[in-house]
Amino acid sequence: MRTRAAIFAAMVAAGVSLAPATALAAPTPTPSPGSTTVTKAGTTFLSATPVAAGQPVRVGASTGEFLYWSFAAGAGEIHQISATVALAKDRAGSSTWTVEVFDGLRRRQACTAGAQTPTADASVSTVAIGCVLRRVRPWAEPWSADPLPGTYYVRLAVVDLPERDLGLPIDVDLLISATGDAGTAPEDGKLEASLVPPTNAGEVLDAVPTVTREDEDDDGWNINLTGWLPEAGSRWIWTTVGGVLAAVAGVFGFALTRRPATR
User: Where do transmembrane segments lie in this chain (predicted)?
Assistant: First the structure.
């Protein structure tokens, strides 16, 4: 009986010790059937390439470039980013890669699992990078950095490598998966609008002003001379006036100090 109890206790202890490691192990995401492969990436937040959950990404780039993608996240979802970088063969040394995720307000989001910043030795040909985000909440306090519904940005880059390896070609395979039911998280509030930064485009002005028929005479010559004259507050006006006053003051001063001619 004591032997069985000891074996049972050992099994329970082993199960307890293995439970956290099993919880941290994230399943490998698979592409959605029939999804189109994305073959480009942005270089900034503003030019990030939109990607849907389950849509595979495969792009060619150069070592040292910052690659950006964006995806939409709903409340109740948990997103996993999985990337594989195929490295060049003639590398000088090891390199460290990272994948970062930002929300619509450019706040960096923490990863709960995955190799977010792995280091690849010079002998390996590929490096795997991963990040599992926290569950998106339908609302949060203004001071918190909890993930909220909206647009999220993924940035893939190398953070440490020999200088001579900059510019070497790489191939990136990336996939974003989403689990959980969007909009069904039991919360006491709801976000009124998604976290997307305001982008108000400005008005494009013509570089060369257009000349109307009213500004031209019958021969086609421009008779509007107001464009040639400087404004009243222009420095050219004040410089000219100052020069004239200085000349008048000089002549007047010379007249006062001139001695009468003696015979």
Answer: 236-257
Which residue from 82, 85, 127 is spatially nearest to 101, judged by alpha carbons?
82
The model's pTM is 0.62
DSSP string, 130-157: EEEEPPPPS---TT-----SEEEEEEEE
Residue 19 lies in a domain: no
Output the six-digit token pair for 89: 């063969």
> What is the number of residues in the chain?
263
- 235 token code pair: 């420095």
Tens-digit pLDDT profile for residues 207-235: 665 555 555 454 444 444 455 555 655 67
In degrees, rounded to 5, the angle at the alpha carbon of residue 99 between the alpha carbons of residues 94 and 100 is 140
Total structural domains in the chain?
Answer: 1
We report the CATH number of the domain holding residue 124 as: 2.60.120
